[in-house]
Design a protein that fits this description.
The chain has 2 helices and 4 strands.
Length: 92
Amino acid sequence: MEQIMEPALLEVNHLKTAFTTKEGTFFAVNDVSLSLKKGEILGLVGESGSGKSVTGFSLMQLIDKPGKIVEGEILFKGQDLRNISEKEMRHL
């Protein structure tokens, strides 16, 4: 019996989120990639300050200035969340 591969519900590819200050640019999220299918659960584990919260905020487009997603894609059901409006994001 052939197994059908289910597409990812959420796919994150090479996500980078940076904060630029007078002292320079700091990458709080640097090249994060992950893939989740329907029904899967993901836990992010790491030391304080390792970028767990910023990763989550990046996925939801909730990064406050001076932070900015500078690279990567965030696909939800195949749609790149980086290219949708704030209103569309709230609806999701």
